[in-house]
Write a structure and sequence with these properties.
Helix content is 49%, strand content 14%. The protein contains 37 helices and 23 strands.
Length: 837
């Protein structure tokens, strides 16, 4: 038998399903009755024969994977074609969602589930010695995103499709994604993520929609017939080739398209140089152009990297805006009604150049006067802000934009001139206010200010975040145009993060409240009726334990070690950043470790702390924190069994959507401990919540709304509020004040200096207590005592299994409000003014 084939094993027992880590979700009937087993079988045969010259009998697992992937892609393409026709017939308003990243996760399982063809495909595959789980293991995570921003965008695409809104997403087809993470002695090393070697099977090249983008050169302006004409000269042209990734929705009529752009040089080789034997130089220009779509977020701590990031942003938005306009003109005779038939959403500031690019096309290519063009742009564009870190509010040096996009720079200058002129009329003499609202200042272009000036709506992604935008960061703009500002709290694709990721829990929910929560997450609220049902609470506990076994088995298979499934699974999985305070978590773990070293017999709950995160390649402090976590875990492994049984710290490398889908169902404690006022919202907190994890967190981001939803008895809140943080900074925060008054903390700092696994971390001590700039910039020491007290309360609650399972149930039942379906409906009704088909 072919090496890709495998013996059919008896996996019918629950024990085997758990041991294999692949308990299958309860199947639901196909939403597409036209796709019967016999028809699907015939299509698979056609794909195998047409693409690979094979029959089902001699096809390998890899061939079946690709055939089924193409099958789902083509079904979704048919749905999209019909959906597009219906949209054109009804002439509905479309939504176009622009984001630098879409962290979509593995596609095959999601598409098969949403299409409702699981049973039929399982039966077909079983006939040839395979199963769907075998195919799912072949699938890869597309390298199109990094963290919460990209995952949110992916969840929104799912919800747009499910609720039958007609739209498209736009991004870049990154050849190597972000990076694959490996730890070498605890230090993060980055490797290329060659996801396209497998993932390209889901992409549909659309070379017929190729567009051109111009960089560099210069512009000449002349007045003709009373109108300013601009001529662009000596530019470099880059071709943008689109690839479509079909996005499925659950039991719905349509499908969405995520259009991804690849950069290509118009001339693939300089034949003259090649003929002269200078082979490398002959391909330099091609390599330089194609670098635009090579890697997500290239390091920008040098000129070349910063220039590449700038080109990525303009390349992606120019191609997208050109495509959106073409789509509009395929239906309507002109662009006069463009803003009434299209909504363009800028997700964070990376796509901001869409505003001047749309102005450029309207004025330079379609002859609109400035005022009419600006009216169309501002009525079309909306902006979501995703960060309140001042250092993360994106700016670009003026010289860099002027050099690489001279026409775009000229348009931005004119936008700013007119903005400041209007502001001067309103706030004559208030230079400080006008300077703060100006798009151009101190030789920098402020992208957030450009978004606010050029959009009709600005929203935050949690109530506290939106309030901070209005009252702090963009207060001047809010006072000037208060109606522009609103809030849409983030949401998650609960069908993926609950139903698909946690089939055992979804089966329990089906039995208790029925399956309709898949379509309407608010129905989860009905689960609260079972808070005193001891049978249901016992089932919740058993399901969590079985999921912990599944995760442990997965980790054993993937990383080579197992977890203590009788310990508390305490989880912090998210992008590694100082403000998210993985370091605070580690400081407390060190305190627990110190206690055990002094008293191994101490009566404490066995704890397993699970970390997973990627640090930006040039983010040295984040990498140091990863190394600290790793070395602490290794140090604990060297201790006697009595300590190892009570405390374990693991760092799971190469965090991804697929890994998160394994971790979330098994998690019991959700660490959401960012410094108050720093996290915009978060979505990992919602994914953990819907899987029954109990949150320990600060009053930051969506934690506040989670606390309101579950009630204060079902969450552990600690630490300062955002107002208290501001007050402490105003009072000249000194971390040494907290250090000298806390014996536990003093011992922790001493341990850092002494080191773990043979490595001293005195540089982190310096960071916390004696930094050259600002010591302990995210106030880990200020919140340390309260964090420890909250953990003590959490441990006490966990020791009462009935109480803990009730808390878990309330978290699950209260999670419906955090579904992406709700978020998208709010965007549709309150910002985009679109309607479902």
């Amino acid at each position: 038998m072919d090496k890709d084939k495998k013996d059919i094993k008896d996996t019918n027992t629950e024990e085997n399903k758990i041991n294999n880590g692949e308990h299958k979700p309860k199947r639901h009937k196909s939403h597409h009755q036209a796709y019967t087993r016999s028809k699907l079988h015939k299509i698979i045969e056609e794909k195998l024969s047409g693409y690979y010259g094979l029959t089902c009998e001699n096809a390998t697992l890899t061939h079946f994977y690709k055939a089924v992937a193409i099958l789902t892609r083509d079904i979704l393409s048919e749905k999209r074609r019909d959906f597009r026709l219906k949209s054109k017939t009804k002439r509905v308003k479309n939504i176009y969602y622009l984001c630098m990243e879409f962290l979509v996760g593995k596609q095959l399982k999601n598409n098969i589930y949403n299409l409702g063809i699981e049973d039929e495909l399982e039966e077909i595959l079983n006939d040839y010695g395979f199963g769907l789980e075998d195919l799912y293991e072949k699938d890869v995570d597309p390298g199109l995103g990094n963290g919460g921003l990209g995952r949110l965008a992916a969840c929104f695409m799912d919800s747009l499709a499910t609720q039958n809104y007609y739209g498209m997403g736009y991004s870049i087809r990154y050849e190597f994604g972000l990076f694959r993470q490996k730890l070498v002695d605890g230090w993060q090393i980055e490797f290329p993520d060659d996801w396209l070697s497998v993932g390209d099977v889901f992409l549909i090249p659309r070379t017929d929609h190729t567009v051109k983008i111009n960089f560099g050169g210069y512009i000449e302006e002349n007045w003709e017939d009373g109108q300013l004409r601009t001529e662009y000269k000596d530019f470099q042209t880059v071709e943008a080739i689109p690839y479509d990734l079909m996005i499925s929705g659950y039991a719905c009529e349509g499908a969405e398209v995520l259009r991804l752009w690849r950069a290509k040089s118009p001339t693939s080789i300089n034949i003259n140089l090649f003929s002269q034997g200078d082979f490398v130089k002959s391909m330099e220009e091609t390599a330089r152009v194609e670098a635009i779509s090579k890697v997500l977020y290239p390091a920008d701590n040098h000129y070349e990297g910063k220039t590449l990031r700038l080109k990525q942003q303009y390349f992606f938005v120019s191609a997208s805006i050109q495509n959106i306009i073409k789509r509009h003109l395929d239906i309507y005779p002109n662009l006069n009604n463009f803003h009434r038939k299209n909504a363009v959403h800028i997700n964070d500031t990376h796509p901001t150049f869409a505003i001047p690019e749309l102005m450029r096309i309207l004025i330079d290519e379609h002859g609109y006067v400035w005022e009419d063009a600006w009216k169309i742009v501002t009525d079309t564009v909306a902006y979501t802000n995703h960060t309140i870190l001042p250092e993360a509010l994106e700016t670009w040096p003026e010289y860099l934009v002027k050099t690489n996009m001279p026409r775009i720079y000229a348009i931005i200058c004119e936008i700013n001139r007119r903005l400041c002129e209007d502001l001067w009329k309103k706030y004559t003499g208030n230079w400080d206010k006008i300077q703060r609202m100006s798009i151009l200042a101190f030789n920098q272009i402020r992208m957030a200010n450009l978004c606010i000036a050029g959009g009709h709506s600005i929203n935050g992604v949690a109530k506290i975040h939106s309030d901070l935008l209005k009252n702090n960061f963009f207060r001047d703009f809010y006072e000037d145009t208060p109606k522009k500002f609103t809030n849409v709290t983030n949401g998650i694709a609960h069908r993926r993060w609950l139903v698909q990721s946690n089939p055992l829990l979804s089966e329990l929910l089906d039995g208790c409240i029925g399956p309709d929560y898949r379509r309407d997450a608010s129905i989860l609220e009905d689960f609260k009726k079972f808070e005193n049902d001891t049978g249901v609470l016992r089932s919740l506990s058993e399901i969590k334990h079985r999921n912990k076994i599944c995760l442990s088995n997965y980790i054993k298979k993937t990383y080579g070690f197992s977890l203590n499934t009788d310990s508390v699974f305490n989880v912090q999985v998210k992008r590694l950043h100082e403000y998210k305070r993985q370091l605070l978590n580690v400081l407390r773990i060190i305190s627990v470790y110190n206690n055990l070293l002094e008293n191994p017999e101490a009566d404490i709950l066995p704890q397993t702390y699970i970390f997973a995160a990627k640090a930006a390649p040039s983010y040295h402090m984040a990498k140091q924190i990863i190394k600290l976590i790793y070395c602490l875990g290794e140090d604990i492994k060297k201790q006697p069994k009595i300590i190892r049984d009570k405390l374990s710290v693991v760092f799971l490398e190469d965090y991804s959507v697929s890994l998160a889908e394994q971790i979330m169902p098994a998690s019991e404690v959700s660490q959401q401990i960012s410094l108050a006022g720093k996290e915009a919202s978060g979505t990992g907190n919602m994914k953990l919540m819907v899987n029954g994890a109990v949150t320990i967190g600060t009053l930051d981001g969506a934690n506040i709304e989670i606390s309101e939803a579950v009630g204060e008895d079902n969450i552990f809140i600690f630490g300062m509020t955002a107002e208290e943080v501001d007050a402490l900074w105003a009072a000249k925060y000194d971390p040494d004040d907290y250090y000298v008054r806390n014996e536990k903390l003093m011992k922790v700092i001493a341990s850092l200096n002494g080191g773990f696994n043979g490595v001293s971390f005195n540089h982190i001590t310096q960071y916390l207590l004696a930094a050259d700039y600002i010591a302990d910039p995210f106030m880990c020491l200020a919140d340390f005592k309260d964090y420890c007290l909250a953990h003590d309360k959490l441990d006490e609650a966990y020791g009462d299994s009935l109480r803990w399972n009730k808390m878990s149930l309330h978290n699950i039942a209260s999670a419906g409000v955090f579904a992406a379906d709700r978020s998208i409906k709010e965007y549709a009704e309150n910002i985009w003014d679109i309607h479902s088909l």
